[in-house]
Write a structure and sequence with these properties.
By secondary structure, the chain is mostly beta strands. It is built from two helices and 29 strands. Helix content is 7%, strand content 51%. The strands form seven sheets. Strands 22, 23, 24, 25 and 26 form a five-stranded antiparallel beta sheet that branches. The chain has a four-stranded antiparallel beta sheet with strand order 1-29-28-27, with no helix packed on it. Helix 1 packs antiparallel against helix 2.
Amino acid sequence: MSLFTTTEASMICRFTHSQGLVSNPGNRLTRSLLVGAMALGATVVPLGLSSPAGASSPTISVGSQPHGVAVNPSTNTVYVANYAGNSVSVINGSNNHVKSTVPVGTYPFGVAVNPSTNTVYVTNVNGNSVSVINGSTNTVTSTISVGSKPHGVAVNPSTNTIYVTNRDGNSVSVINGSTNTVTSTVTVGSKPQGVAVNASTNTIYVANHSGDSVSVINGSNNHVKSTVTVGNGPRGVAVNPSTNTIYVANNSGNSVSVIDGSTNTVTSTVTVGTHPYGVAVNASTHTVYVTNVSGHEVSVINSSNNHVKSPVAVGIYPEGVAVNPSTNKIYVANVGGNSVSVING
């Protein structure tokens, strides 16, 4: 049950605007207030924008407050975790239609796919669990208990292993995809959020939001073999397996740290938009996509030279982003617009 009446929700929106809080959705007070307001259907429009309709890319309506997004390129299917809707929207990538809505746990946040097994994994923040979805039937087949406040999730399809960041546990839960059991818990940095896997090197990268660092885990023994200092407030992380390069979105630094996976050193820092959050890579086109929450846009980086191309306008408060390399389509979850923007790469 919501703690706010409809009238209070409207007042919350006006208050956050008047205090300039909406310009910084990373602020904890802002996010707490907006969760209650938007859950009641209040329209939250950032300062300087009239509506999300000004976005230049097509949009798909999904559930309430979508955060995470993932793609199965084998089936051309997109999965979106609806944080306030306690559900996952399943989108047909061929026609951009929502073909199913799957109920999951409380406050689903991150989502990842194993295309080899056609299985989807969803982190439930308030449930301290991971929902496992059969991609063929769009039904939850298992719920796995993990650590405190799970956020990010990533899959190594080569080993059928799933990695989940536990934000309040400062750890990563390692799940065996064959048995749906936690086989190990790895201690990492402070407030881990984003996680990514390089299946080619069996290496896992974890963005420690409060530690301003990335933990590098050896997937063979689940040991942290290196800790790389990056920018302020890292959230999203992605890997280009072709070049063994890692990209980290520094939410408070308005930048992306570029890490050489061979040396675990930062080789470049790329300035992007305001409050970057999610990051995704299309290795086929050597392109990196970064969502800028307060800029309501996506920065496009040429990974060959780390130059930023013209940004793409999307919906309100974009966070999650995923790429289908087979179709060169990019999917962006707009938290404030209850939508997914589709970008033609």
